Amino acid sequence: MRSDYIIVVGCGRLGSILASRLSGIGHRVVVIDRREAAFDKLTNEFSGFQIVGDASEMAVLRAAKIAQADYLFATTTEDNLNLMVAQIAGSIFNVPHVIARVYDPTRESIYRRLNVEMISPTQLSVAAFLYAVDPSLEHKPL
Amino acid sequence: MRIVIIGGSKTVYFITRQLVERGNHVTIINRDLARSRELSQATKATVVFGEGTDVNRLEEAGARRADVVLALTSHDQDNLIACQVAQKLFGVPRTLALVNDPENEEVFTRLGVGIAFSATRVIASLIEQQASFEDITALMPVADGRINITDVRLDANSPAVGKSLIELELSGGTLIAAILRDDEVLVPRGQTRLMVDDHLILISQPENQEDDLRTICGIEPR
């Protein structure tokens, strides 16, 4: 398997599991979080690097060697931070694959036009609930 | 002008007062309820309570008709997103963002913010330029700060006093554009000899400036 260099921004519930799994299957993973205690959530699978810092600071992104990343996943609980980091990764550092987690669906159209790829937990949940009520309303959620 | 300001700092308060006094219509979006009340009592601005990056709050604040959106929070990400939403969704013609990390200045401009300014950088350069040498006044940065115009007064201790311009070994990055002596403006020539109380108007690139100022004034930065 090809080993990719992956930056995960935010080590919350989502980020910690994602980073652990990616590291477990052999990718080179760097996880960034503002709080050092957040890294406690990483599992034993994780053998990557941890950076304590605010991802809105360029110095922190550079410390994570963002220019060399194959993937960047912005998973913090702050939509705005995720959208900013995703744009910096994609537009400034040309990271090939960038995905931001975004809760607020009202701004999706703007960022889709700016070529920011997003995952919306809100939309995913809505799809799952609708599917439960009437499978013809939605595609089967993942 | 119709101006929407996002934030709640003292700066926001004073800017609002000034803009209102000059006849502008100002709406503030602030995320703290108590601060929103204070701002609404203390200024003549309309205050909308909520997130400045929220599409609905921007709409409520009149972003659709706004001439300018000014994002002044202490979070760079919020300032960026507010400007982008204002511009892309509401077509606001001018957006200005405060950047807290000076390195984000360039990033923001590349991501479409009209003007991004770093208070940190402005203050730091004022301190470097104005306070590091006595008798030196930074007149203005030109070309995005790639060139500085500076006024330097020579005192009796300046090593440049008594020397001709040829003898004064400046880097290639600094030019003496004019010499003010008493009330006269002298065009500098190689043979021109510098005297106490001369004012030199320098045009210099920031990377050479400190060395050249030391050659002229002979003092260490404070």
What is the name of the CATH class of chain A? Answer: Alpha Beta
Cα distance, first to last residue of chain B?
43 Å
Shape of chain A: globular
Number of strands of chain B: 11
Low-confidence stretches of chain B: none
Secondary structure category of chain A: alpha/beta
Largest sheet of chain B: 6 strands, parallel
Mean pLDDT of chain A: 93
| Helix segment tally of chain A | 5
Radius of gyration of chain A: 16 Å
Sheet with most strands of chain A: 6 strands, parallel
For the record, the count of structural domains of chain B works out to 2
* Helix/strand order of chain A, N-terminal first: EHEEHEHEHEH
| Beta-strand percent range of chain B | 25-35%
Q: Name the overall outline of chain B.
A: elongated
Give, in order, the helices and strands of chain B: EHEHEHEHEHEHEEEEEH
At the fourth CATH level, what is the homologous superfamily of chain A? NAD(P)-binding Rossmann-like Domain
Question: Total helix count of chain B?
Answer: 7
CATH architecture of chain A: 3-Layer(aba) Sandwich
Q: Which bin fits the share of residues in helices of chain B?
A: 25-40%
Q: How is this structure best described in words?
A:
With 142 residues, chain A is of the alpha/beta class. Chain A has one domain: Rossmann fold, CATH 3.40.50.720. Chain A is built from 5 helices and 6 strands; from the N terminus they run E-H-E-E-H-E-H-E-H-E-H. Chain A has a 6-stranded parallel beta sheet with strand order 3-2-1-4-5-6, with helices on both faces. Chain B is an alpha/beta fold. Chain B is built from 7 helices and 11 strands. The A-B interface holds A 56-59, 78-81, 83-85, 87-88, 91-92, 104, 106-107, 110, 113-114 and B 53-56, 75-78, 80-81, 84-85, 88-89, 101, 103-104, 107, 110-111.
